[in-house]
């Protein structure tokens, strides 16, 4: 089984990413279940604007798209900015919009029989809103969203430390992340055994 993680941090490597740190909890649990995981830190790639699979020369999205089609599990990870998914997350969803009109050999939308979950970080509130926005988009595209297939960390209202700057709330976020991975894996196995028909 394969998984793709889209890390939508606004920070390019090698800058530390809080989103990556929490996503790693989910990755580690998936690896424990023999899932092969590929991560894209989208800020390191040239993801052109648009709602197409290939925007032409210089566009790095086609390699991300190809990996999504090879994976049964998607982990969509984003920081929260002004109470919303970050701009890179929105761009990724817009590019994934092209998948709605793409079909497999049995004429099903290509995202059918794939599962997705969400990781959210931010030192401000709004995580449930961000999870709802991302899950709504992924569901439209055709992904199956298992119950409790998300985790998040935020400090609460007002300014404060980021995920990597404090241990506050980590135990809950990490336990929830491990549960998220288990639920994604279980539903992916169920869909592999009994796929959604055309």
Share in helix: 25-40%
What's the helix count? 5
Assign the structural class, choosing from mainly alpha, mainly beta, alpha/beta, alpha+beta, or little secondary structure: alpha/beta
Morphology call: globular
Query: What oligomeric state do these chains adopt?
Result: single chain
Largest sheet: 6 strands, mixed
In short:
The chain has 198 residues and is an alpha/beta fold. It is built from 5 helices and 6 strands, in the order E-H-E-H-E-E-H-E-H-E-H. Strands 1, 2, 3, 4, 5 and 6 form a 6-stranded mixed beta sheet that branches.
Please explain how this structure is put together.
With 198 residues, this protein is of the alpha/beta class. It has five helices and six strands; from the N terminus they run E-H-E-H-E-E-H-E-H-E-H. The chain has helices at residues 18-32, 61-70, 87-96, 127-141, 170-193, and strands at residues 2-7, 36-41, 73-81, 84-85, 115-122, 150-154. Strands 1, 2, 3, 4, 5 and 6 form a six-stranded mixed sheet that branches. Strand 5 (115-122), helix 4 and strand 6 (150-154) form a beta-alpha-beta unit. Helix 1 (18-32) packs across helix 5. The protein is globular. The two termini are 22 Å apart. The model has no long low-confidence stretch (mean pLDDT 95).
